């Protein structure tokens, strides 16, 4: 799992890639309210039966 986690690009790299193609970087730029972001992060792991970072965070 550590190798997979280390292979994930840093948030700064992801932001740089999005900015390079003039994509939105923040939830505000997408027009998403903070309350929806919080609720989505709490409930997203129930959408699909997959092992994701959100599911791992819940186990830790």
Give a verbal description of the structure.
The chain is an all-alpha fold and 60 residues long. Helices cover 62% and strands 0% of the residues. The protein has helices at residues 2-7, 11-20, 27-30, 34-43, 53-59. The protein starts with a helix and ends with a helix. The model has no long low-confidence stretch (mean pLDDT 89).
Q: Whole-number average pLDDT?
A: 89
**Number of E-state strands:** 0
Order of helices and strands: HHHHH
Largest sheet features: none
Rg computed from alpha carbons, rounded to a whole number of angstroms: 14 Å
Q: How far do the termini sit from each other? A: 13 Å
Assembly state of the chains shown: single chain
Please mark out the parts with pLDDT under 50 across 5 or more consecutive residues, or reply none: none
Q: Keyphrases for this structure?
A:
60 residues, 5 helices, mainly alpha
State the gist of this model.
With 60 residues, the protein is mainly α.
Explain the layout of strands and helices:
Layout (H helix, E strand, L loop, with lengths): L1 H6 L3 H10 L6 H4 L3 H10 L9 H7 L1
